[in-house]
Specification:
16% strand, single chain, alpha/beta, seven-stranded parallel β-sheet, 10 strands, 8 helices, binds fructose -6-phosphate, Rossmann fold, three-stranded antiparallel β-sheet
Length: 260
């Protein structure tokens, strides 16, 4: 696990965009794993700017979202299918048919979950998976207690996550209770995992999953098993890390050729 502590979201957005740009130049057919929520927005803004300004090309890329609410209509503005389209994919030249989200409106949800896993496999697997982390340590919508080997499936949100996400809806009552999410086992198969956490409210979760034990009570801790996981945090989210000075020293002396 590499922990990179940066000043703020803008610097994080640029560094992650550098990694995605390098990936697309090396592999134009790259498969991107997309997250919703606030954490990846600076990355999407930076990628959209590079597409507009420098012609960064997404025309042969593919994208798979991490998760989706159950029970929202396809066109609902807070469905992750719409959020991903609005915040990112409609701002670059990725083909609409290459962008996938789990189908939270499917009549047969288990079959839709299996089909999603199959579509990811058929696309060759995820090259770079963007992640945020919940205040309870969830990644995707794998809440505490999720199996560390889980695959795409239906999950129930804990109340804290519903409260955290109520800011996107008119009221708490409108936040669905159920979601479909890639499992922790699914996420671990991505070739490179890039997690972004900003703000003091994320500091306890960051401390627990980076420096605590690997345990289902803190789902993001499973990333300690990933051979290429990059954790990007601002100063506030890093404020409870015991080894913060060591992470800073390591990153400051990292050979430039290594990239993220
Ligand atoms: C979103 C997702 C969630 C969020 C997490 C953090 O697709 O899978 O795990 O990444 O809830 O959300 P923000 O970034 O809004 O703090």
């Amino acid at each position: 696990m590499e922990v990179v502590i940066l000043q703020g979201s803008k610097q994080i957005g640029q560094l992650v965009a550098d990694a995605i740009e390098a990936l697309l130049r090396r592999k134009p057919t790259a498969v991107l794993g997309l997250a919703t929520g606030s954490s990846p927005l600076p990355v999407y803004d930076e990628l959209a700017a590079r597409h507009q300004r420098d012609g960064l090309d997404f025309s042969n890329a593919h994208a798979f979202a991490l998760d989706e609410y159950v029970g929202l209509d396809h066109g609902h503005p807070e469905s992750y299918r719409e959020v991903i389209r609005r915040e990112f994919t409609s701002r670059v030249n990725i083909a609409e048919g290459n962008v996938h989200t789990p189908d939270g409106a499917a009549a047969d949800l288990p079959a839709a979950c299996s089909a999603y896993e199959e579509a990811m496999r058929a696309a060759g697997g995820v090259d770079l998976q963007l992640l945020g982390v919940g205040t309870d340590g969830h990644i995707g919508f794998n809440e505490p207690g999720s199996s560390l080997a889980s695959r795409t499936r239906i999950k129930t949100l804990i109340e804290q996550t519903r409260r955290d996400n109520a800011r996107f809806f008119g009221s708490l009552a409108e936040v669905p209770h159920h979601v479909v999410t890639q499992g922790l086992g699914t996420i671990l198969e991505a070739r490179h995992v890039v997690l972004i956490a900003t703000g003091a409210q994320k500091a306890p979760a960051v401390r627990d999953f980076v420096e605590g034990p690997v345990a289902a009570i803190c789902p993001a801790s499973v990333l300690q098993f990933h051979p290429h996981a990059t954790i990007l945090v601002d100063e506030a989210a890093a404020s409870s890390l015991k080894l913060a000075d060591f992470y800073r020293h390591t990153y400051d002396h990292k050979p430039a050729w290594q990239g993220l």
